Amino acid sequence: MNHPFQKPMPENALPPEEVIIEDLRVEPWEDMTRLKIFVKISPFQKPANLHFELFNQEKKKLTEVAIIENTEIQFVFTIHLKSTAETGEYQLKASLDYGEDFGVTNSKTINFSLLS
Hints:
1 helix; elongated
């Protein structure tokens, strides 16, 4: 039985060990308490788990997000910060994880600046 939210598999779908994070971008909301995260991964045969970690310029982890068995190739989500983000350098780490079968198959890290 198919999952009710699972879409038909694209012809160019890749096996887990070949799926990559193609694009990762961050845009702050005007209130500086939220960040929009834009993600694009390659077409896949099997949904992956995605993990995101946000660090400040002192390399302190500010927050983390897990998306389990993602079904989308391209999506946007919002990270809520505990307080208003300070001006400075930040780092977002993303990883694709297929659990015990394949483990982490791909990761991407981006650095970005927030200006007041």
